[in-house]
Amino acid sequence: MVDGDATETELVVIGAGPGGYVAAIRAAQRDLDVTLVEKGDFGGTCLNTGCIPSKAYITATDIAHEASNAELMGISANPEVDLSAMNEWKNGVVDQLTGGVEKLCKANGATLVEGTARFVDDHTVAVDGSEGQDSETIAFENAIVATGSRPIEVPGFAYSDEPVWSSTDALAATEIPDRLVVVGGGYIGMELSTVFAKLGTEVMVVEMLDDILPQYGSDVTKIIRSKAEELGIEFNFGEGASEWTEADEGIVVESETEDGETSSYEADAVLVAVGRAPVTDTLDLEAAGIETTDRGTIPTDDRMRTNVDHIHAIGDVAGDPMLAHAASKEGIVAAEVVAGEPAAMDVQAVPAAVFTDPEIATAGMTAAEAEEAGFDPVVGEMPFRASGRALTTGHTDGFVKIVADAESGFVLGGKIVGPEASELIAEVTLAIELGATLEDVASTVHTHPTLAEAVMEAAENAEGQAIHTLNR
Amino acid sequence: MTDTPFTLPDLGESDSGELVTWLVEAGETISEDQPIAEVETEKSVVEVPAPNAGTVTELLVEEGSTVEVGAEILRMEADESADAESADAEAEPAADSEAEPEPTDQPAEEVTISDERVFAPPRVRRLARELGVDIASIEGSETGGRINEDDVRAVAESTDEAEDGTAGPKPFTPSGKSAVSKDGEAVSGTGITDKSESKAESGPKPFTPSGKSAVSKGGEAVSGAGMADKEAARSAGAVTHAAHYDTAVVAELTDLRAELEPHAEAHGVELTLLPLLIKAVVRALAERPTLNATVDEDDTVTTSDEYHIGLAVATDDGLAVPVVRNADEKTILKLADEIGDLLDRAEAGELTAEETGGTFTVTTPGAIGDEYATLPLDAETASLALGAVELRPVVADGEVVARETLPLSLSVDPRAVDSTEAAAFVEQVVGYLESPTRLLLTLT
Ligand SMILES: Cc1cc2nc3c(=O)[nH]c(=O)nc-3n(C[C@H](O)[C@H](O)[C@H](O)COP(=O)(O)OP(=O)(O)OC[C@H]3O[C@@H](n4cnc5c(N)ncnc54)[C@H](O)[C@@H]3O)c2cc1C
User: Fold this and answer.
1) Which cofactors does the annotated protein need, by name (chain A) (predicted)?
2) For residue A470, is it within any domain?
3) A49 C-alpha to center of ligand 1: Å?
4) Is B110's Cβ below 8 Å from some Cβ in A?
5) Of these residues, A310, A446, A448, A468, which one is catalytic?
6) Between chains, do B119 and A345 touch, taking CB under 8 Å as contact?
7) What is the mean pLDDT of residues B320-334?
8) Do A262 and A175 belong to one domain?
9) Residues A275, A277, A279, A281: what is their CA dihedral angle, to the nearest 10 degrees?
């Protein structure tokens, strides 16, 4: 299998997702001799079947939905959606991005190798090419494992069956299903439920817990649920999907409560989005002596090192938070550590965004977490219905909440629900990283009229002196 | 191993000087930057640092002789590893030597990242890792305890010094640091050295610069001076530390103190000369802000508009540097009261961290036992050593008479303070000490 001469490299990066390709570029920028191995498409999950295609669909279906719901603004339209054309457009976006990533890697001097890498020992990987080609051996000084994650399967729902969709299948669909059961009310399930609901699909969410997105708190989920219900999404909480069967027309999905009560839902397809599992089975970690957790993730220290010092792990394969920007940051840290720099994963906040309607975004601590950490939290709030800009967009659901320490004024966290929440959280995150105070944020002039003013107003409110809301 | 000559480096202000004292002798092993000789020019005494580590083979000039800049003054054998550089010794006398790298050049020990919330921007957190400082243990100097670069550097330096027992005499860390480590170990802020260190300094020259402070880093520290008119200091191998001295005839001052003493006593305060001296110093500082300042590794000078005067005093446990805060805002009576209290507690080893961290340091009379003493400057740009008031011969009206005089010696970092400024400052302090009633003009 393994041919004679091994290629040598200072750093081998396995997997070219937002973790791996960023690590490879940063390492090349630091003059390391770096080899990037990818078995599939450059850009990984995020660019090919995750963040980018899902956001493309969200934007496109928003346009259709908005256009048909703007009578109040004097616009009447009945847009026709051609899902396969939308799919093509999305593919074009993906191709452009992944092509760009590949070019960037090369232009920075990384050597790209196509194939599946597996460890031979703690200083060697073998790369198996696609069509029974001979494998290539690469001897490395350092390695970064960035093999990402894949969707978890629910027993009884095999992705290989046509009507059972993973998120990847959903994002490749060319026909709009009339009825769709979505198993799982996490962020991927909710984002895709919203996409299909806006395309006119009857969406039924089956969720084991008693709320969607429970980690964000009821002040958030209340708003998301009510908007989703307006869109026609039906929620079935406390139920686990147990099996599916073919029916005369489409399929039937069976579910069961803890007490054994069953329900069945008629649909054309079932989308399973119950979480993602790390990809390590391609790697033969044992050959290098790399340990994993019970969940299968690779544990690391704050320098992203595994138990084997010169082998790092980053991104989804290294565990939570399974987010693209976390993967990229970890990739930068790992590359700089390999280059001998004093880098470490010491960020004060990793923001998270959910692209539902309205969007959710958080960073840092909640008030409860702040209290637990020994702070005396104050919370400032600005509802979007008091924002001029929000009114002009026609989207006034939601709020900006900012958590700070009462004594020092340091910004500790933020929670935003509303239009462009995913963009607005950046300012709060910056404030947290810099150790800025409420006063710093409140004293910064914000463009008018913008949604971002709500962040300033929330900071003012926490100080008891907001202009556009009553300070109670 | 080759025997190479070492020439007198640029003195900053003159082309020649008198070699007053050799601080090393033939056969002695020396380390890089170790002071090897004192050279006196018209108004200052400077210490010449060793170009690199090695062994002195021969002293080429006798004490008391005048030496031109560029003339050979000694021969030495550089350490093996420094051999390569020693060839350039003339051009780059203070070039980095591998024989004894600065501790900061070595990869700092890796610090584990704490889960605790840290209030410091990312670049400061990175600097902490670079210097091997656990940022979670620092109490920042900014509002709310936010940590800045200076805080990190201060803790890094104090830790370096505490760890490095080998490098030359190190009497104490001058204050001027705002950061203290939360757990209180190895902190510049306490101003008190441990016993072993204070013993090391009981030799004849207790206050020679440590060779470790920012100012004494040879060519590296002086290159690229942050302020104008520092050409002299900028040239590689220029002296890195300069002293200016003078003597004040203090008869009027001692009379004044004697006159005020009973009035102070009526307030229950014992009046020494020190509060009066501090008033004079603060007044002079107000007119020359670069002396009430710190300079960092990038040669950036940060002046302070607050006057926190550190008093270097000898205690049984070594040296302590209690600080009189906002000395400019206090009456002489208040200063006297506070100083008495601070010195008592310094003696008892009871200073708290808040009572240290000055902007300028004064070595108190009697703390030294040497008329002209020089403090290590560290981050501060200047410090003043005061000798004891004694009857000494002075020339008055063409006759030699005995007068009460007070010798003073100012050490400055040439990156921040040039010799003209330094001399002017000393002159001003002397002026106030010789006719203290002038202080009334600026009384607030
Ligand atoms: C539908 C969906 C929407 C998402 N939306 C968002 C979002 O909005 N924001 C966000 O932050 N995150 C989002 N994510 C999550 C995001 O995609 C992941 O967190 C991110 O891709 C993780 O990056 P990574 O580099 O760790 O792994 P991946 O992107 O999974 O990349 C791993 C790469 O490694 C390759 N590989 C695996 N094994 C080997 C091997 N042995 N040899 C060679 N190559 C190998 C794989 O082919 C893959 O290309 C979304 C995910 C999904 C599924």
Assistant:
1) FAD
2) no
3) 8
4) yes
5) A448
6) no
7) 88
8) yes
9) -140
Residue A1 lies inside a defined structural domain of this protein:
no
pLDDT of residue B162: 59
Q: Which two tokens stand for residue B15?
A: 């082309």
Tokens of A29: 């920028």
Helix %, strand %, coil % of chain B (to 5): 30, 25, 45
Judge if pTM exceeds 0.95.
no
A300, A345, A346, A408: best to mutate for the B interface, most B CBs within 10 A = A346
In the structure encoding, which two tokens stand for residue B138, read together? 């620092």
Measured between beta carbons, which residues in chain A are less than 8 angstroms from residue B129?
Answer: 342-344, 346
Cα of B386 to ligand 1 centre, how many Å? Answer: 69
Residue A194 sits in a domain whose CATH number is 3.50.50.60
Q: What is the pLDDT of residues B342-391, one digit of tens each?
A: 888 888 877 776 666 788 888 875 555 444 445 555 678 888 888 888 88
Q: How far apart are CA B431 and CA B287, in angstroms?
A: 13
Interchain proximity A373–B118, CB inside 8 Å: no
Give B111→chain A minimum CA distance, Å. 9
| Selection from A192-196, B243-247, B318-322, B327-331 with the highest mean pLDDT | A192-196
| Residues A79 and A13 both lie in one domain | yes
Give yes or no for residue B83 having a pLDDT over 50. Answer: no
What is the domain range of residue A429? 352-462
Please name the amino acid found at residue A398: G
Give the residue from B112, B117, B148 with the most A CB atoms within 10 Å of its CB, the best one to mutate. B117
| SS3 assignment, position B138 | strand
**Assigned token pair, B330:** 């206090």
pLDDT of the residue at B50: 82
Within a domain: A343:
no
Where is pLDDT greater, at B211 or A415?
Answer: A415
Predicted confidence at residue B3, as pLDDT, reads: 80
Q: Does one domain contain both A283 and A224?
A: no
Residues A209 and A228 in one domain: yes
What are the two backbone dihedrals, phi and then psi, of residue A113, each rounded to the nearest 5 degrees?
-130, 130
> Which residues are bridge partners to A465 per DSSP?
none
Q: Are residues A65 and A206 in the same domain?
A: no
Q: Is the same domain home to A267 and A284? A: no
Which ipTM was obtained for this model?
0.89
Check whether residue A327 and residue A365 sit in a common domain. Answer: no
Q: What is the DSSP string of A394-420?
A: T----EEEEEEETTT-BEEEEEEEETT
What CATH number should be reported for the domain holding residue A450? 3.30.390.30
Residues of chain A in contact with residue B106, where contact means CB-CB under 8 angstroms, are: none
Which residues in A have their CB inside 8 Å of a CB on B?
301-303, 340, 342-348, 365, 373, 375, 405, 407-410, 412, 433-435, 437
Q: Are residues A283 and A390 in the same domain?
A: no
- Give whole-number Cα distances, A252 to A202, A269, A270, in Å: 14, 9, 9
Residues of A in contact with B110 (CB under 8 A): 303
What does the pLDDT read at residue A146? 98
Question: What's the rounded mean pLDDT across residues B1-22?
Answer: 79
Domain boundaries of chain B, sorted by first residue? 3-89, 109-240, 244-442
With the most atoms of ligand 1 within 8 angstroms of its CB, the residue from A12, A22, A49, A51 to mutate is A51
**Is residue A467 in some structural domain?**
no
Closest B-chain CA to A408: B144
A326 CB-near residues (< 8 Å, 6+ apart) = A315, A350
Could you name the CATH architecture of B3-89?
Answer: Beta Barrel (2.40)
Q: How, if at all, do strands A124-128 and A116-121 pair? A: antiparallel
* CATH class entry, domain B244-442: alpha beta
In this chain, the answer to whether the domains covering B3-89 and B244-442 adopt an identical fold is: no
Q: Distance between terminal CA atoms of chain A?
A: 72
- In chain A (472 residues long), the average pLDDT of successive 10-residue segments reads 73 98 98 97 96 97 96 94 96 97 96 96 92 84 98 95 96 95 97 98 97 94 97 97 95 96 97 96 95 95 97 97 98 97 96 98 97 96 97 96 97 98 98 97 97 98 93 78
Number of domains in chain A: 3
